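Minutes, project check-in

Agenda point 3 was the complex the collaborators sent over. CS summarized: two entities, 1054 residues total, and the question is how they sit relative to each other. Sequences were read into the notes so everyone works from the same version.
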Amino acid sequence: MTITGNNLIGNTLSATGSEIFAAVNPSTGALLPGQFHLVTVAEATAVTAKATAAFKLYNKKSIEDRAVFLETIAEEILAAGDELLDRAMAESGLPAARLTGERGRTMMQLKMFAQLLREGSWVDARIDTAIPDRQPLPKPDLRSMLTPLGPVMVFGASNFPFAYSAAGGDTASALAAGCPVIVKAHPLHPGTDEMVGQAIISAAKKTNMPDGVFSLVFSNETTAIQLVKDPAIKAIGFTGSRKGGMAIFDAAVNRAEPIPVYAEMSAVNPVILLPGAVAANAAGIAQGFAASVCMGVGQFCTNPGLVFMVDDDNTKIFLRSLSENIEKITPATMLSKGIYTACNNGVEQLKAAATLATESKAIPDTGKTEAVPHIFSVAQKDFMANKSLSQEVFGPVSLVVLCKNTDEICEALQGLEGQLTATVHANADDEAYLSPVIDLMKEKAGRVLFGGFPTGVEVCDAMVHGGPFPATTDSRTTSVGTAAILRFVRPVAYQNFPQPLLPEALKDNNPLKILRIVNGSYSRETV
Amino acid sequence: MTITGNNLIGNTLSATGSEIFAAVNPSTGALLPGQFHLVTVAEATAVTAKATAAFKLYNKKSIEDRAVFLETIAEEILAAGDELLDRAMAESGLPAARLTGERGRTMMQLKMFAQLLREGSWVDARIDTAIPDRQPLPKPDLRSMLTPLGPVMVFGASNFPFAYSAAGGDTASALAAGCPVIVKAHPLHPGTDEMVGQAIISAAKKTNMPDGVFSLVFSNETTAIQLVKDPAIKAIGFTGSRKGGMAIFDAAVNRAEPIPVYAEMSAVNPVILLPGAVAANAAGIAQGFAASVCMGVGQFCTNPGLVFMVDDDNTKIFLRSLSENIEKITPATMLSKGIYTACNNGVEQLKAAATLATESKAIPDTGKTEAVPHIFSVAQKDFMANKSLSQEVFGPVSLVVLCKNTDEICEALQGLEGQLTATVHANADDEAYLSPVIDLMKEKAGRVLFGGFPTGVEVCDAMVHGGPFPATTDSRTTSVGTAAILRFVRPVAYQNFPQPLLPEALKDNNPLKILRIVNGSYSRETV
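CS then shared the predicted structure for the full assembly.
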């Protein structure tokens, strides 16, 4: 597979623009092969026109055809082989094992949505049959199901070159829903995105999908916002910074026709360690916490950036054990110089406002972008007085907030913004405090954990990777798991439609054998 | 029941403000008894504080308690008796039969949500059990379900003093979801709203619901927007004008924490009459259409304001028959002088731009607010050239767009904004044209009808009362039917939670006997 540096305008390679950029290897600082052409305004207009035309055709495809398309994308990504993994490693600085696993997860997500389509019940089919002789008025026949919104624009993430990028969860769920997708390639891994994009186009051609069902562009911010504002775009998926997400959200909701934005932006993922749990297992919790905060050089949106605990003798054991674990960690390459610099700036700000509890071994400054893990501590009253301490530092950095008692823990939790996750460690001795803590965790987060740590986002039906603002711009949804498909659909009701004109999902004989609500009862039966 | 003119700040009557207003009888222009005190800034702050406190308590109530609360509201509304109906008639000008029916629908909606709660499966419970020995990493136990957003603010409609007002669909679905509700009383029927609000408070007291689970305020626009911007408010329900809805939407999405807005704003509800259907039954369709466009003095959001048909000999029969039907209609009182004036202004603008096809018998100008039904016609090319012709005129007014062929019909449909409904009349002779027409109807509307007319919104599982912007600000939802509850919830996932700490809906033994997705399969079984 050749990296062309061209925009993929549906099935057409296009590079009419004169502005170009190259990718950088964060481990070496060297430029990587490939010159990527920024999409022009005219090309961007062609992209949305193709997506609009493709939407009508894509929706005429059978569910089985759509499922095969998704599975073929997974096959084509695998077929790109080591060449794709090598490029992703070079662009991201992430190790081979991690990227191999992430590629597997990406393929699994595509196959999961194919399976969801074949099972079919996700369309929420509802049937209320007519009662012609009802008094005072006849009851009409009404049937409803979910239908795709239209072309979706996806902004991939820096930290997951596969699973949250060109063929990631947003793309997979939007294509599964029946929506054409336009991906803005991430500037930190444009070659990886192009190769994955080519794999998707190849799958689209092999499965006879319409030209325009998928496009991928290299874009600066101005043209990206132009695309967000294009009337053809009906929803946005985004994973990245709060600043970037809010720029897109503001543009999207202030359009003549506002559209939904699913931006996953930032979280500090509080971990609450209640006294009984710490007394019972301070060293074990410290070990697990150190591993979680340093996993992937702390570059996960579920990274635990805040710990709340009662300051007692066991806290000292916890912090000492945490030190022992953190000190052993080998610094590792971050995704980019910019992310590395931002992480260091965050550390410097924490040094000014909090106490350094521990850091991992320093390394000689080789000019490499290798982040040193840092843990800080601060008294609850100082934490409460300084809003900036509750902001995310993207990297292997966390802040332990020392509280006088569990009331102070609850006060601090109540003051937090929305989060992707919230975790509590508790045992039988903590029972008296637990209920208000869990209530606050539910109020603040999309996923609550009892024990363990928030890094590691299982892909399954029950996953909620989302949460109240600013964790995301739409707490009603998840970007991971089968329910992610629900972001890209809306319900349509059919009143008194003849059987031949109804979609398969709503016909009397239930040819798809899906679960439906029929006259108030769940059923897979014929009406 | 006494109309106090006080704001209902939870269980407390409050009238500290000095600004007051009275309701007007639109049939006579006379002021009605009751002086309504506009809520002050301090009172508005007290309202949201009470709602926030009530949210935590309301969520601790059992599902059965919540269901009984909803049913008790219905009983209390009925107990308000003829006094309530009389006040609603006086404030709205709507006839007794209509309001009696609407009250019944309002009570039925409350009971429907009580039934939905008891069945319980609507919470979308999902369970993925742990696989501790999975390689390379253990799979955690993950369980998710829908949970309420928090306090909801509801703006009722002028045209449904019961079913879309203080105890209407928005209030019923938000309370059912577990969200406290703050209603802004409608200035055209404040007495009706207060009486219904008192019925809700009475029900809340009888069923031991927390103070603040329901509040009702009389408010000007400034204070209403202050409430929309209050961080305590987590979602908005609105039914009314596009201008009003967009003011609320803009305020809500530009908050520090943006919140969802479910504003149902405007629609012209196109009716497409294909040539075969008109040839077969021009007179019958004309009769049905005349009844639909004049029903309730045209004051329904589903009123059919646009007709598209091919201009042939049968069109003349249709228009002549329409004339015969329209001419028989007796003008009737509109909801207010302002609505009447706006309707007349719309008619004048149509007179300038289109041809008057027919109007009902004129009436001597008695100063009453009685609207005269008007039907206009216009050539498709003139319709396409004048965007204002596709805007809603709220009242018994419709515009017939005469097309050269079905291509022109499709072109006109493609140019329309989003709609609540779209209707087609077709028979076997129209088969060749039908598919693209239905595709466009689905693209543009939340509910598509085959035959019949869009007025009359059935309350059931399959109803979709919603649609693409500007019909609503959130096409992913419906404001009528059981699915309306989904507007006020978000999913929360529980990872590795001990059984006793899980919500009932997610416990292994499934005490609520609800349908769940367990390890990929739908089941009511114990895990």
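Noted in discussion: Chain A is about 40% helix and 20% strand.
Follow-up: revisit at the next meeting once the mutant set is ready.
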